[in-house]
Amino acid sequence: MAKPKLALYWAASCGGCDIAVLDIEDKILDVANHFDIVFWPCATDFKYSDVEAMPDKNIDVCLFNGAIRTSENEKLAKLLRDKSKVLVAFGSCAHEGCIPALANLTTKEKIFRTAYLESPSTKNSDGVTPQTVTRVPEGELEIPEFWEIVRTLDQVVPVDYYIPGCPPQSTQIWAVLEILIQGKPLPPPGSVIGAGEKTCCDECPRERKEKKLKKFYRPTEIIPDPNVCLLDQGIICMGPATRSGCGALCVKANVPCRGCYGAPPNVTDQGAKMVSALSSVIDAHDPEEIEKILDQIVDPLGTFYRFSLSHSLLRKVESV
Amino acid sequence: MKHIKIDPITRLEGHGKIDIFLNDDGEVANCYFLVPELRGFEQFCVGRPVEEMPRITTRICGVCPEAHHMASVKACDAVYHIDIPSTARKLRELLYNVFMAGDHTLHFYALGGPDFIVGPDAPAAQRNILGVVAKVGVEVGKKVIQMRAHHSEIMQLLGGKKVHQVTSLPGGVSKGLTEEERKSTEARILEMVEFGKFTIKAFEDIVLKNKAYVDLILSDTYSLRTYSMGLVDEKNKVNFYDGKVRVVDPEGKELVKYSPNEYLDNVEEHVEPWTYLKFPYLKKVGWKGFMEGKESGVYRATPLSRLNAADGMGTPLAQAEYERMYSTLGGKPVHATLATHWARIIELLGATEMALDLVRDPEITGTTIRTIPDKTPTEGVGIVEAPRGTLTHHYITDERGILKKVNLIVGTTNNNAPISMSIKKAAQGLIKKGVNVTDGILNMIEMAFRAYDPCLACATHSLPGQMPLVVRIRDKNGEILQEIKRL
Lengths: 320, 487
Prior knowledge:
By secondary structure, chain A is of the alpha/beta class. Chain A has helices at 16-22, 27-34, 48-52, 71-83, 92-96, 108-118, 170-182, 249-252, 270-279, 287-294, 300-304; strands spanning 5-10, 36-39, 59-65, 68-70, 84-90, 133-136, 139-142, 146-151, 161-163.
């Protein structure tokens, strides 16, 4: 019997998702034995043209990491959707936009201006910026177009499953691959897989009490008690608004969760969930006092939506 | 005019692409190294609280998040004008040296190594980690996997996560090391030191004892005379975590030694319209285009250039190998691009020795690991040596520590112009009129590129397979005259 075909692709990403796949260590050999890996630019030698030549739905499962930042990312997303029976948004960028999607708080024009014109180390008196097509003496050179916004995979093509995390934990990746290898049935399309069904707090070993907060601290401002809930100590921790699945690694390292596993089950907007979690723990009734307490939270937008801006209800800040 | 495209060659913080143009005589007219990706961290980090930067900028690179984590937190320390506790500094350095050793291991065995161990013109299907294992034995493959496991376990222990570390914050680290953890870490590092020694021995047996390889390393095709950059300690020894940036000219004479906060006096960046990646150069010498030599501001920041820029290594085993490299290759500085592989494993060994010293330091299990900042945040620069070159983070904040300006000069970016130049030189040396461009020739062009270990390349070859490559030679109308596919 022919082996099922597996493809892995990276769009606008840092490579951490691919490292996380390699971190399943010797089990990677099981993956190589069970699957016919038809496309994995970081590890195998197949080319775009090989994928283009495939019949539609030729790939059984495609794990797609990275957000959609450029025209090339989008082209590959569409191509791999056509060629794949099951397309998985793998990791926070493909799932929710992740940190690259913080770029949606600004504009392409500002990004270019900062990088190429106003950077203090850049000397560019002619005001040169990268162009999609450049004529050089020997011919033409092309680079992909940089889109105005960062989109998630499912904002470009239909997606069957989501594996959250920045990066997804290797144990969770293996759990999903094991289901595929054993041929067990997959959950209904649209499901989040390779994660828990509760919040990060559920995996956190710290002691929690009823919260009554009058003051918030930035992580630099206090040395937290290692055994007590960070939010109880006034440090913004995204645990209550974040899906379980990582094993609460950051809080175990004595730093607050920043939400890389995305919104918990049945929550659409991670940032809105965090706002509602906070509003229930502030120890004040007077609106003015509440406002004063909330003002202590610096950069709520960049904190509550650190990993989920593309997928949030905000999507894109139009004018900054 | 014929046009050869190598697309994609491999990852470089995104996709990389090489365009080679041949003139009507079939000789190389020009080469372009294109980086078709930009993410805009310098702009979208504005408005963020500066203490979050060590956790945000890790996402620039998932292969070397440790480097961004450290450069970032050092910039933060400077922004807050803090001296961190001695134990915190040692914990960061311990993490960082283990990381350097782990990263260099992957590159040497999985990516750069195959060219030498299996052979530069061996069949493509064998030029990979499996080919390496076939040649030197399955035990070596197991050792490489073991090294990788040691690296990622120590990252999780000291950094909180295997990928995208979280424990360094302005003023120190969030988590200390218990005596029990210290012992298990020491045991892992002892194995890493042995592995470093083994690697040096393997390189000697396979490469240095083969005259053809040594001739290849020293050949003009793979030489590039540029300035060399690297971080040095107060004794001018190679240091990855801290020190001053020293630059030596193509003859090895010191041009400048600068502190992180003086980087703007020394490095400037040039923009070309056909790539998203800028071209740094030495400000005092100036941008003269893609040119070799003392008159051109092009410099390299690689393992080899770090060794060129320093007076030696900080540890005894690495120092002995450092001396042997220069005596074998005809003295300092060395401009042979392929010697970067040798320099890389000398650094690998040195990093394991440094890590061993640190894990045995009585202060490493200290409990004073953080200082709470008490000064008004302003501006700071943090510099570390990333595996692929000097990494600079520069932040300016308001009085609340909210970022107003971010400037980054990333490891591989330093080498953008030298990579282009090395590729062109190799292509010119190898593609001649009437010569059929074979897979072996293409690989030898790629070897010029691979020596720089462009980002992600190290990880990419940990699995069966090798760098994907298609070269098309087109005529003026775009019609394909010849196509070489490596499958």
